């Protein structure tokens, strides 16, 4: 399946399906014909799990750099090491970067491509469920010790090639994490889809074909939003549903302990509680959603590891925070997101309500 993304700066397609790597890459012959070198950036886990399949199906010669896994690849040190590698390989402005991995590799490789010689082309080859979100839309970044994703650029890939065979080696934790972003896409766009997810099988046990459909649906939701607002001036903010509180949990726990999507799921429940107050979400729905998330093994116990005061430190670091007020994406009803400023005192009240619901 091909899903076009018509971003203001550049249009490209997301090709998604099982076993499509070889054909989808071949169909990009114009891009590869122009490239004097192809550099594959990946991480140690992805390469260990998927090297054989990648080498058997990738139809071009390439140089590979295998980076440390997870957030470690988004450090300044690793960014520097990758740029050094490109320079040593004598890459030019015509060289092509392939981001082969999850969101971390994609964010790093995209930022490398955005900045090497002021910008060279790159292709996203996502390998996680979460990356159905991160690989589309052109947000690239590395982390600063003072904040995650603080140094980055909007820089669109020339294509996204999403072969769902890569997902077969993901751990349950990573499947659960990625599915939270799928559920987020459902919540901001489509009440019927949310029903289907809530009534469906465990997120870690979805049949392959259904999973591929959900990923395509999620990519479509993201593409529609990015087409309207590439640089997050308006509707792109909706994609941050669950992320304000979620990022605070993720950061407080220490990156990697609670996976990004696991933290987002916690943030989604928090936003539903806030949406009862500012929107028309009813409490029965919030409780049902929480029950679904708990049944699916999302780690809500993490909330009790921190006081609200501890979380506040991280909440205030949010890129959208402003003088004692936080900006949240909330839901009027399922499928109808809006942006709302909320006073910190009120955030604390909802936090208390949330904790009571969890005991
Ligand atoms: P990740 O890239 O760290 O991957 C998670 C783990 O799974 C890593 O240990 C990785 O090595 C491993 N892995 C990846 N693919 C695998 C496979 N096929 N088989 C076995 N193991 C595999 O994390 P992620 O969850 O994909 O993405 C999280 C990152 O994405 C964060 O850095 C977050 O900030 C970023 N993100 C970016 C955007 C965006 O719009 N740019 C959106 C959401 C998240
Ligand atoms: Zn996210």
UniProtKB/TrEMBL annotation:
The record lists the membrane-crossing segments as none
Domain 3-dehydroquinate synthase N-terminal positions: 65-176
Cofactor stoichiometry and binding remark: Binds 1 divalent metal cation per subunit. Can use either Co(2+) or Zn(2+).
- This enzyme's EC code(s): 4.2.3.4
3-dehydroquinate synthase C-terminal domain boundaries:
178-321
Task: Say which domain of life the source belongs to.
Answer: Bacteria
Q: Could you identify this protein by its name?
A: 3-dehydroquinate synthase
User: From which source organism is this entry?
Assistant: Solibacillus palustris
Gene name, please? aroB
């Amino acid at each position: 399946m091909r899903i076009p993304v018509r971003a203001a700066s550049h249009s490209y397609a997301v090709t998604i399906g099982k076993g499509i790597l070889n054909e989808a890459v071949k169909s990009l012959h114009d891009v590869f014909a122009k490239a004097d070198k192809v550099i594959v950036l990946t991480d140690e886990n992805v390469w260990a799990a998927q090297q054989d399949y990648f080498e058997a199906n990738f139809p071009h010669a390439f140089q590979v750099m295998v980076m440390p896994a997870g957030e470690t690849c988004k450090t300044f040190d690793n960014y520097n090491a990758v740029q050094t590698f490109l320079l040593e390989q004598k890459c030019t402005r015509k060289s092509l970067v392939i981001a082969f991995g999850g969101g971390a590799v994609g964010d790093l490789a995209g930022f490398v491509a955005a900045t090497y010689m002021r910008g060279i082309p790159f292709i996203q080859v996502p390998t996680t469920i979460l990356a159905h979100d991160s690989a589309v839309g052109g947000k690239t970044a590395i982390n600063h010790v003072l904040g995650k994703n603080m140094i980055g650029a909007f820089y669109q890939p020339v294509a996204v090639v999403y072969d769902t065979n890569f997902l077969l080696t993901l751990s349950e934790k990573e499947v659960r994490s990625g599915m939270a972003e799928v559920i987020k896409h459902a919540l901001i766009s489509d009440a019927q889809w949310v029903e289907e997810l809530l009534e469906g099988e465990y997120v870690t046990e979805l049949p392959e074909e259904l999973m591929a459909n959900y990923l395509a649906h999620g990519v479509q939701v993201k593409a529609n939003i990015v087409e309207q607002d590439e640089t997050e001036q308006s509707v792109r903010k909706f994609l941050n549903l669950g992320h304000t509180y979620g990022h605070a949990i993720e950061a407080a726990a220490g990156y990697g302990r609670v996976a990004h999507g696991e933290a987002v799921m916690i943030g989604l429940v928090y936003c539903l509680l806030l949406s009862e107050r500012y929107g028309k979400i009813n409490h029965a729905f919030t409780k049902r959603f929480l029950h679904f998330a708990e049944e699916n093994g999302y780690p809500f116990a993490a909330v009790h590891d921190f006081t609200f005061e501890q979380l506040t430190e991280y909440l205030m670091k949010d890129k959208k925070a402003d003088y004692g007020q936080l900006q949240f994406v909330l839901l009027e009803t399922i499928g109808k997101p809006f942006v709302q400023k909320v006073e910190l005192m009120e955030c604390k009240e909802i936090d208390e309500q949330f904790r009571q619901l969890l005991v």
